[in-house]
Amino acid sequence: MYGGHITDNHMHIDPLHGIGIDAVRQFVRAGGTHLILVGKTAWDWDIDATTVDDFRNAYLRTIELAGRINESTEATAYPVVGYHPSEFVRLADAHGIAYAYEVGIELIDIWESLYEDDLIVGIGEVGRPHFDVPCDVLDAANDLLFEYLKTALRMDCPLQLHTEHFTAASFEKLGELVKKAGSPRKVIKHFSPPLPDIALDNGVTASIVASRDAIRDALARSKTFFMETDYIDDASRPGAVLGPKTVPRRTLHLLEQQAMSEEDAHHIHEDLVSKTYGVDMDTKPVYENVK
Ligand SMILES: [Zn+2]
User: Fold this and answer.
1) What b/e string do you get for 264-277 counting C-beta neighbours within 10 Å, with b at 16 or more?
2) What spacing in Å lies between the alpha carbon of 38 and ligand 1's midpoint?
3) Of 11, 44, 195, 235, which one has the fewest beta carbons inside 10 Å?
């Protein structure tokens, strides 16, 4: 029987509007061990964020939440924070594109200091809105995305990207941008379709939504990808995304069916995770007195 770790590469936990840490307990009961805890938007913390400081407050809440998860469950959570494209669009609507862009640039310094202090393991989610927006808003989002790719290169830091629905052609376009930015090594396409080989060809690692067929399809193409649920933990949107048990359940099921080898599982859930995020998965990070 598989005795290794099982990692969900993109999970949100919302103690205010969802079931909070109980979702992590469900993840653990199903066999999950590690999660990349991606911060929700600032307004999910009931913070009406307009300034860089407001965003920083939201980040500290996410980091504290990771600390509580690590203290009170068997799981290990690693925080990742960013500037969600919806946050960018909302600020652009309320205060203009130039202001929203400027905030996006100023946030880089905060990410850098949190990353240097080992309070986050990466930046995310950042990128482009998945819904239609005016051209000038999309252009500014793309400019920011390019700045963030350069930041990821300079900091050698993982970057989880949120984008519109992706195809093979979108990976090629993103690949051009990644190259132009100097080829940062740790660009991750969150909510990726099962095209891990095409992602890798374009300098990107796919984080694949662990739906029934997607992981099987992905394994037939490459063994190098992450698995994720994008669990949103929102009581008002039940069933909007995969539940917290999905990654461990899917993994154990595929192992049982011999559709995934133990070697593949170790690679996906351990080697890739520890190498990309620079973490020792056998030590739980402590996040306390975060200021
Ligand atoms: Zn997400």
Assistant:
1) bbebbbbebbbebb
2) 7
3) 235
Average pLDDT on 45-71 reads: 97
Per the prediction, the chain carries an average pLDDT of: 96
C-alpha–C-alpha distance, residues 117 and 159, integer Å? 17
Quote the ligand 1 centre to 37 CA distance (angstroms).
9
The domains of the chain are located at 7-277
pLDDT digits (tens, 9 = 90+) for 13-41: 999 999 999 999 999 999 999 999 999 99
The percentage of residues in the chain with a pLDDT greater than 90, rounded to a whole number, is 94
What's the 265 CA to ligand 1 centre distance in angstroms?
23
Distance 69 CA to ligand 1 centre (A): 18
